[in-house]
Amino acid sequence: MRSFLPTLLLAITTVTSAQSIVYPNTKTVDISDTYFGQTIVDPYRWLEYDTSHDVEEWQNEQNQFSEKYLRKNAARFKTTTGVYQFGNYSTRTLNNENDRLFVINEGGLGPGLYFKKKGDVQLVIRPLKYGRHKDISFFVASKDKKLVAVGLSDAGSDWDEVRIKNLETEKNYTEVVKGIKFGRVAWQGAGFFYCRYSMPTEAQLLSAKNVELGVFYHKLGEDQRNDKLIYTENNPSNIIHVETTDDERFLIIYGNDIRNQQPYSKLMYIDFSDPSFVKPRIFLMMPKANIEVVDNIADSLFIISDYKAPKKRIFTCNPKRPNKINLVVAENDEPLSQVTIIDNKLICLYKENANYFSMVYDFSGKALHKMSFPLGSDVVGFQGTKDQIKTRYRCNTFTYPPITYEYDLRTFATKSVSVSAINYDYTKFITVQDFYTSKDGTKIPIYIVYKKNLKTNGSNPCLLYGYGGFGISMTPFFEAGLMHFLDRGGVLAAPCIRGGGEYGEQWHKGGSLLNKQNSFDDFIAAAEYMISKNFTNSSKLAMMGASNGASWLEQ
Question: Can you give the pLDDT at residue 344?
Answer without folding.
Answer: 94
